[in-house]
């Protein structure tokens, strides 16, 4: 049993492989025990994700319905007015969220009027007492500093998949671009939210490799979203098989063991999971979920807040209240 309060950054691929490949129940048991050493297992952080600019993205992430090049049913929406975003944030707070994440379908942040408006939104949401997170694409260090000064708590930038499999999924940027942005976020003193997606056609080795990259960072991401591919009609991955729940549980449990202090987020794909399946993910160490208004997570379906609160009640869970410098989100 790895019941220890030590955070390691020197994991080897072999060690993570051994953890990941254990019999599932043994893996879940270890993860659950470690989870209880580091976290209050009865608390789940609820994060609301709002798409503040939707669709029309020049990138070609093959899982994403917001890429302009794919013919999907997603309705393109330019940057929302600041007042609208603040109204959404107020509502999120009222319904139990302690964190509010704003997502814009951009390749990268540009120093223009839209970025000035994002800065205003960050200030406004921060003033409400919510942890504020953004996911806006690639970011320079200077832009990260501006966001930090406005009160940004976390920046989401997922690795998506392993370095080895990256080119199969995205051709318009490189894995190193992701790492650079994460480093810029760190240098600015913003917490990092970074995880990935399973179900893209990657192998177990790719999943282990992605976890290795995250778990050997100088500082672990404070938040690690684990997403199951949400298959969007019109994208190259629309016909991929549904992610097996035990693969999700295995991934979450391994993430929990190798990054014990991080918040592990059960992210996209919850709509296709039963309450029992989600309970397994919480047992394996997930301690955060996304909610989205109108029962969507960005542009894909997600359980509604009422349904989630009922699940919490059934499982004896409560929403985590805002903590200083605990983190999160997904793009
Ligand atoms: S995941 Fe983000 S960067 Fe990739 S296409 Fe979608 S919106 Fe653009």
From TrEMBL:
PROSITE patterns, alphabetized: RADICAL_SAM (PS51918)
Record GO terms (molecular function): 2 iron, 2 sulfur cluster binding; 4 iron, 4 sulfur cluster binding; biotin synthase activity; iron ion binding
What's the cofactor? [2Fe-2S] cluster; [4Fe-4S] cluster
Instruction: Spell out the reaction equation it catalyses.
Output: (4R,5S)-dethiobiotin + (sulfur carrier)-SH + 2 reduced [2Fe-2S]-[ferredoxin] + 2 S-adenosyl-L-methionine = (sulfur carrier)-H + biotin + 2 5'-deoxyadenosine + 2 L-methionine + 2 oxidized [2Fe-2S]-[ferredoxin]
What pathway does this protein act in? Cofactor biosynthesis; biotin biosynthesis; biotin from 7,8-diaminononanoate: step 2/2
Q: Which domain of life is it from?
A: Bacteria
Q: Name a biological process GO annotation.
A: biotin biosynthetic process
Query: Which keywords has UniProt assigned to this entry?
Result: 2Fe-2S, 4Fe-4S, Biotin biosynthesis, Iron, Iron-sulfur, Metal-binding, S-adenosyl-L-methionine, Transferase
Identify the residues that bind [4Fe-4S] cluster. Answer: 57, 61, 64
Subunit details: Homodimer.
What does this chain do?
Answer: Catalyzes the conversion of dethiobiotin (DTB) to biotin by the insertion of a sulfur atom into dethiobiotin via a radical-based mechanism.
* Sequence similarity: Belongs to the radical SAM superfamily. Biotin synthase family.
Record-given protein name: Biotin synthase
**From which source organism is this entry?**
Empedobacter brevis NBRC 14943 = ATCC 43319
